[in-house]
Design goal:
single chain, 612 residues, alpha/beta, 3 domains, elongated
Length: 612
């Protein structure tokens, strides 16, 4: 590969060892099928200023080599111009570099514009960069008709702002030489017989979008390799590739696991129904660890960069964060082989910690999940950092303390928990019954949160309107019709029931207990948002049918909820639920509340054992 890597000086120079000389070409050519120059310059994180900043940061750090992306070219015989290199992919970079070099010379005539007449656009005669006219004011830029010229003018204004700061800080000449000697491009040279337009379309249509995770993976696989043995033998290229292959497999294993929606949501969600990018969130955790434990993280606080960003974003340096901000931060940190290995080890440690929580101690998993997803507490991402980096026993104790603060203590509660005055506390109480079971089970926090489980009245509030009795419950309802009912009314109701027609709730009063206070905690359960809407003000018999049907189909239903609708809670007292499985009455509410108080006491006692 070494002969295909060229410095910027070797890209544009026509002397010995240059891309043009090696290919016996006179200049680079932008063909008609190309889409024109269109790199943005409207904020400090747009393509043009970001490229300037990235090169500057590499320069400040003294990075030996700074690589831009590949460019793809093809040798082409162009009429009277002889052989040229047709640019298939890389037009934006070469154009921006040409603009940069031409503007540097404007400020310092002792420096050479090595790009002069080295890049030619088919649309324009001569050198477009030398003939580029810059309007007197930015307002006049809007009158520029041609796309290429418009974006080039905007790029020039951006470049000039940057070069002015370099000049004021006596860094212009040093930056220029770093640009020429240390910034490099890798050439991909296509065969002369290939169809340029097809290659162009394939490259642009089939590109995998660059993301932070792929860039950081590439950075680590490039840096975190041993190049010599313990006996100082230089490793072969194949041996280095073997190391990268192993690391690549480890990375892919981590990525595949942490990117599963239920896992990424459990550890990293910051709001309901969010589907976070698991690997990038894991990398953010690692970055926070580095920033919190090192005084020098490599983050540049260079005054020149601050001034430059403020020229674009006067209110803040981060008004429009770069989409590659995460990669840029890692790129500043990972300066050598040692730091690359250190970062890779931190990533593997974070992965193992989360993996062990997910598949290990169920009690720890449930404590962590409850703290993350309980009402008024949910989505505190700091707990994810805690469980990764701190001692497991210490964190478990801290989690138990937090859970004890969240769960209402019914023994010492000063206010009755009711639907109409304490919905968050009531929800957290009911959630605790589903999470902290007598027989430890792993609670599905992902389904609970993404399906938006909320409070539901077992016996509905203010029943009104019409209801439909499911076919499998018609026999039960027919048997409950009062003997005193008029024959014609009975016949009408029987016909509607058998035909599956809607019936007014006023005609089925025996399905409800009109004496209950529906807002008391003994009448409450958790139900999925969609089902909650579906059951609406249906009587208990209809709600029960919906919930059990959902459970039988394999859908998620919390233990406590299904136990209530089946009236199967383990009652330790002699008095139990009313035997009628299709009706929820005042006795059931009373019995349920007694169970809630007893179970709440047991859960709190169990949690306190963690503090001993």
């Amino acid at each position: 590969m070494s002969e295909l890597v060229y410095s910027i000086k070797q890209i544009f120079n026509a002397g010995n060892k240059s891309a043009l000389t090696d290919n016996k070409a006179s200049f680079y050519y932008i063909a008609p099928y190309q889409r024109g120059y269109k790199w943005e310059s409207n904020s400090s994180y747009a393509q043009v200023p970001q490229m300037l900043i990235d090169i500057y940061e590499a320069f400040v750090y003294g990075t030996t080599e700074y690589f831009l992306q590949y460019i793809t070219v093809k040798k082409l015989k162009l009429d009277d111009n002889g052989d040229v290199l047709e640019v298939i992919d890389g037009q934006q970079r070469l154009t921006t570099l040409s603009l940069l070099l031409s503007r540097i010379v404007v400020r310092n005539s002792d420096l050479e514009n090595i790009s002069y007449k080295r890049l030619q656009y088919f649309r324009y005669d001569g050198d477009i960069f030398a003939s580029l006219q810059i309007p007197d004011s930015e307002e006049e830029d809007e009158n520029i008709i041609h796309q290429d010229r418009y974006y080039m003018v905007k790029a020039v204004r951006t470049i000039d702002k940057f070069l002015k700061l370099l000049e004021e800080n006596d860094k212009l000449e040093a930056y220029y030489h770093y640009l020429l000697d240390s910034v490099k491009l890798i050439f991909n040279i296509e065969d002369e017989n290939t169809n340029s337009e097809e290659v162009f379309e394939n490259l642009n249509n089939n590109k995998v979008p660059l993301t932070n995770q792929y860039l950081i993976k590439g950075l680590l696989l490039t840096k975190a390799v041993n190049r010599t043995t313990s006996f100082n033998r230089t490793l072969s290229y194949k041996e280095i590739l073997d190391q990268r292959t192993v690391m690549g497999r480890v990375w892919d294993e981590i990525n595949a696991w942490i990117s599963q929606p239920e896992i990424a949501h459990f550890f990293f969600a910051t709001k309901k129904k969010e589907n976070p990018n698991g690997i990038e969130k894991l990398l953010e955790v690692v970055l926070r660890r580095i920033e919190n434990t090192q005084t020098d993280t490599g983050e540049i606080e260079d005054s020149l960069l601050q001034q430059y960003r403020l020229l674009f974003d006067p209110q803040s340096r981060n008004v429009q964060p770069s989409m590659y901000e995460l990669f840029n931060k890692f790129n500043r940190i990972i300066r050598d082989e040692k730091t690359a290995f250190d970062v890779l080890n931190l990533i593997k440690h974070a992965y193992r910690a989360l993996y062990n929580i997910w598949y290990g101690d169920i009690d720890f998993y449930n404590l962590f999940g409850y703290v993350r997803f309980a009402k008024s507490q949910q989505y505190n991402i700091s707990w994810t950092d805690e469980v990764i980096w701190k001692d497991r026993a210490v964190v478990k104790k801290d989690l138990a303390k937090r859970v004890l603060k969240i769960i209402p203590d019914l023994k010492h509660s000063q206010t009755e928990l009711r639907y109409d005055n304490n919905q968050n506390k009531l929800t957290n109480l009911l959630l605790s019954f589903n999470v902290f079971l007598e027989q430890e089970e792993k609670f599905d926090f992902y389904q609970y949160d993404s399906e938006n489980w909320t409070l539901e009245h077992l016996s509905p509030q203010n029943p009104k309107g019409d209801i439909k009795i499911p076919h499998n419950l018609v026999t039960y309802v027919l048997g409950k019709l009062p003997e005193s009912l008029e024959q014609s009314k009975r016949a009408d109701l029987e016909a509607k029931l058998l035909n599956g027609e809607a019936i007014s709730v006023d005609d089925l009063p025996f399905l409800y207990d009109s004496e209950i206070d529906e807002h008391v905690m003994g009448n409450m359960a958790l139900l999925e948002g969609g089902d909650n809407s579906a059951v609406s003000n249906n009587p208990f018999i209809v709600k029960r049918n919906i919930i059990i049907s959902r459970r039988n189909k394999g859908s998620f239903v919390p233990y406590h909820t299904i136990a209530l609708y089946e009236k199967s809670l383990d009652m330790k007292e002699e008095k139990g639920f009313t035997p009628d499985l299709f009706r929820w009455d005042i006795n059931d509410i009373t019995v349920h509340e007694q169970w809630m108080r007893q179970r709440n006491k047991e859960i709190i006692e169990q949690l306190k054992k963690h503090l001993a």
